[in-house]
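Figure S7 source data.
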Amino acid sequence: MYTRNSVQFWQDPLPPWDCDQTNTLVCCQVRQETHDVKSFFFRPTKPGLFNFLPGQFLTLELPIDGATVHRSYTISSSPTHPHTISITVKRKVGGVVSNWLHENLKFGSRLSVLAPTGEFTCAHHPANKYLFLSGGSGITPLMSMSRAFHELAEDRDIMFVHSARSPDDIIFRKELELMAFNQPHFRTAFICEKVGAEQQENIISGFLDFNTLQLTAPDFLEREVFTCGPEPYMAAVRAMLEKAGFDMQHYHEESFNFADLGLSEALLETNTNTASGESFSIELTNSKATIQCAPNQFVLNAAHAAGFRLPSACSKGLCGTCKSKLISGKVDMKHGGGIRPREIEQGLFLPCCSKPLSNLVIER
Ligand code: FES
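Tokens for the predicted FE2/S2 (inorganic) cluster complex:
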């Protein structure tokens, strides 16, 4: 069990946490944020400081029903608090992973993780003025960015517009209001579908639409926009900004939806390109099936096209959700950090970012 006490944290200089050396984290606190949202805080098993960019995500390896399930969550804490790292999870009706986390993750629980990664970060897009648009639990990466600016005492011009079902569903409301109190250029607006009879200060009734956007951020055309939320929310934001003539080079969103296992655009494109010609055979041992995959086609796409629902999330080699055992054959894998070198040595690979170089046999 982890024994280091808090006094040691500020007495000893700590080394950076190295996920390749110790990928197990210990849950050190659980906070109830709203009626159905909890934040889980973690420390490394060996003392170390977390190093990540605000807005990045963490992939958990969870032992659920006898299988290892990979699930990625954007980090809600700020890298300016490197002793701990936190994720914030909304319990979803019927959601296997979110319910498992809410019911099983307690003080002292241990979990394996992959190193934080992701491209959705203000660190890669410095700007004088930001517009943060979030829906529901999509608030987490934007909270990490806001916390980072706040804790660095940088009064950046940020308009943070968060949409929730009701005032009781607004995650981090008090903390956002405190940040707005502390920093004149940090402003918040909350948009709720249901406000109730009582008038609530700083809450707009309804949905995010062009009128509410103009009301909350009339200068939105000049801002770097970061959006995170359910896919329909982000699609509506994209359409609204495009219609308003926003330069979409300054628009950023979480580019993958962990709940969506449907066919991606990349898949459709790849399939039209590989409709004919040479292909390799891929044997899926658990499914007792053999499928075909063109040399320029990703293995995951070929499996989906053949009707096999291999688990996947990012489809970019980042999250590790699709990790599979390659029993035989060779692949050309270009991953983005979703697999560790030692896992590759053990014969694992990521089908979402791997193209076959020979016939393959996969444990799936
Ligand atoms: S789906 Fe994310 S790494 Fe393959």
